[in-house]
Amino acid sequence: MALLLTAGFLLTGLSGCSSDNSKETIKIGSVHPLTGSMAYEGQAMVNAQKIAIDKINSEGGINGRKLELVVRDSLGTSSGAANAALKLTNSGVVALTGTYTSGSAQVVSRTAEKTGIPLVITVASSDNLLSNGYKYTFRIQPSVSVFSKNFLQYLSYFKTDDMKTVAFIYENSNYGTGIAEYIKEHIDETGLEIVGMLPYASSTSTLSTEVTKLASLNPDLLVPVGYYSDQNLLMKEILERDIHFNKIVGCANGAFSDAKFLKTYGTQVDGILDINYRYNPNSEETAYMLEKYKEVYGEDIPVHAIYGYESIMVIADALKRCSDPDDPAALRDAIAASKITDHVLPQGVIEFDEKGENINSAGVLVEIKDGKHVIVFPEEYSEKGE
Amino acid sequence: MKTNKLETVTLIILLSIAIVVPFFFGRYLLSVAISVLIMALLGQSWNIMSGYAGQFSFGHAAFFGIGAYSSSILYIDHGISPWIGMIVGMIIAALVGVLIGFLSFRYKLRGDFFALVTLAFAEILRVLFNNTKALKGAGGILIPYKTKWTEFQFASDRTFYFVLLAMVVAATVFIAVMSKRKFGICLVAIKENQDAAGALGVPVLKYKLIAMAISAAIAAMAGTFYAQYYGFIDPAIVFAASISVEAIVPCIIGGAGTLGGPLLGALIIIPLQEISNSIFEEVNGLNMIIYGTLIVIFVVFCRNGIYGRIIRKLKGAES
């Protein structure tokens, strides 16, 4: 048994001691859920990262050295993510990326801090993620409060004079509750009156009672916040019962901005709006990313995967400016000094504040027109629709 | 008697290896070793209540979560050291364990039905914590990263490792002593035939409740460690069904109701998971397939687990 113990550890250890070719390639670690309920999203982010890596390598890499993406499955759990991140730091990565859920992101950012290897968060929206004072964690994605602020800012686009009441239906974890509560606190600024706050568990199998209640409240504006499967349930219920709401505007809605959602409902969901993350349609880089993703993986790029792509671009940009690309501390400083103007996100310059938050991060207002997603606001990113 | 001696010697050798190896381990291996020990501790906790006393629990996440939350809330909101919080958490978990046990046994729930009740309680707690603002709701709790030992935070992961190792050793020694005493023997009697044991004068209810309390307290201890080591907890993490499974699986693989079973089980599963994850990097989910296959094989062909099987063989050879 003792032998078994040592053998087990040795084996795990051996695969960690990779050969010393660090002078040739620069390794970037990627921790995402590749198994379990979030595997689809995790895989899409890794796919987008691979496209970014290939692009940089085909353009000559970092001063002649190629980039290499080292991927580890976070198993969708905190301990899995911690082990994966440490495994990556052991195999000589100069930076980490990840992790899709806030719990895992917390754990990996602690690892980044302990090991002194910078982490660029792809997607994880919890507000308190960067509240620890960590020096090695950066986030490009808009947080829960940024989305909520965007909602209040973009309200002028869809608010009509006769719009008086609003109801929220939101999933009850950190993300849904966070957004609904934030908007509720600032509702006075909007001139709207809240007539209903309906939380639900995202694991629910039906939203029938909630929809009945919403129908009786009949708000002028309905704001749903949730993940793909539960928001899909909500829409199904509303359409099946043929209930008409004056206006539906999602906030960081997991379904409304998803390509699969349009495949399911087509033009039935025309007129629905959503404030969400998306690409910048006017950037040349975006055109490349969209085309390449479709070519390689045979489907449109899922919105969250865009942040996977950009995370690599941010690191590559920093590596090019960095005094020693093999030194994670120097890389950290280079990331902190980022000023990226040419990128795929619908925002101004990508630069980080002292907490590591992307200062100009923002969502856009997407409308479903003729069964297609069209960015309608802010104007500089708006698309005409095809 | 020979078998017992062999067992003790083996466990002591195992312990000495466990004490020496971290000095040769880097951060990653240390992290894997900590995963092994957390699973081992949860396994030992489950072992007392379900392995020895035969009261199958499918909701150990309830106690794990209570431990994690008790110490974290006391620490964050009231500045109480997690060391004290851990003890408070263990007491609360033990009380909750007794409450669940009393309610279930009072209504004569046994076997599968009892298992379902424990599962339900874990789920209730998850929903409760998720929706109660005073308990930090769905946002969870972030433990600030300091390096003060008085606040259960260490600069080196190696120290974390040794603290956890001490917990596992304490739990194992406790079980070793317990299984030789009247209490432990009565628990096994209850597992084998509750009614017969009762008829012979074993205070069935009392002993079952005590076993539950001890088991819950150990799981809570693991919960506090988890919160302090990983630095972040939320209801979806610590009250997850996967935590309950993590308590059961090492016992199934290693052998429930044996002293070293859960330790061996954890030592096999976690490294196996890591190895399959490294070797087959491009094949996602292979580790899950291996995990599942292993459990099926053990349930079908090796009910007593590896450790249990060896012990039985040795004892058989002796007599």
User: What is the general shape of chain B?
Assistant: globular
Report low-confidence residues of chain B grouped into runs of 5 or more: none
Distance between the termini of chain B: 10 Å
Order of helices and strands of chain A: HEHEHEHEEHEHEHEHEHEHHHEE
Strand content of chain B: under 5%
Mean pLDDT of chain A: 89
Strand order of the biggest β-sheet of chain A: 2-1-3-4-5
Count of helical stretches of chain B = 14
Distance between the termini of chain A: 66 Å
Secondary-structure map with pairings?
The complex is a heterodimer of chains A (386) and B (319).
Chain A: H1 2-14, E1 25-32, H2 39-58, E2 66-73, H3 78-90, E3 95-98, H4 102-115, E4 119-121, E5 137-139, H5 144-158, E6 165-171, H6 174-185, E7 193-200, H7 208-217, E8 221-225, H8 228-240, E9 249-251, H9 259-265, E10 273-276, H10 284-297, H11 305-321, H12 328-336, E11 364-369, E12 372-377
Parallel strand pairs in A: 1-2, 1-3, 3-4, 4-5, 6-7, 6-8, 9-10
Antiparallel strand pairs in A: 10-11, 11-12
Helix pairs in contact in A: 2-10, 2-11, 3-4, 5-6, 11-12
Chain B: H1 2-20, H2 27-52, H3 61-78, H4 82-106, H5 111-131, E1 141-142, H6 157-180, H7 182-192, H8 194-199, H9 204-230, E2 232-233, H10 235-238, H11 241-254, H12 261-279, H13 286-301, H14 305-318
Antiparallel strand pairs in B: 1-2
Helix pairs in contact in B: 2-6, 2-9, 2-11, 2-12, 3-4, 3-5, 3-9, 4-9, 6-7, 6-9, 7-9, 11-12, 11-14, 12-13
